[in-house]
Structures are given as structure tokens and as C-alpha cells.
């Protein structure tokens, strides 16, 4: 298994727990999001930078901050 696949599996496992279950995680991944230029997060998660942005997004949401532009990180 490639490192990329392992990283995707780790991200999905952790985020599914964050959202309560895999269905909620998948719904979030497929919903256009202003944080990602109105693209669904799933469209960016295949790149290292995309996964970093998703992790940052989750950290900001957990702390109550949800409005930022990815290019400012």
C-alpha cells in the first residue's frame, strides 16, 4: 500500500470519528464548501496540500472558527 493511500486512510478514519460516523464524513466530503472555493473537499483530498487544508479546516471548526480562505494558511 502506498504512503498516499495510508495517509488517506488515516485522515478518513480520524475525520469519520470527528463527524460521528462515515456517512456524515462522506456527506461533508461531497458538499461544496466556501473554504475550498465552493468545491467539495473530496476534490482536493488527493493531494498533500489538499489533505493539509482539510486537517486545518477541521482544527478551525473544532475551535469555532469556520471562515477562512485556504490561500491564507
Task: From the structure above, extract its key features.
mainly alpha; disordered C terminus; 73 residues
Characterization of the model:
- With 73 residues, the chain is mostly helical.
- It is built from three helices and no strands.
- It has helices at 3-19, 22-30, 48-62.
- It is globular.
Q: Give Rg in angstroms.
A: 12 Å
Shape: globular
Order of helices and strands: HHH
Strand content: under 5%
Largest sheet: none
Provide the fold topology.
Elements: H1 3-19, H2 22-30, H3 48-62
Describe what is shown at a glance:
This protein has 3 helices and no strands. With 73 residues, the protein is mainly α. The model is unreliable at 67-73 (pLDDT under 50).
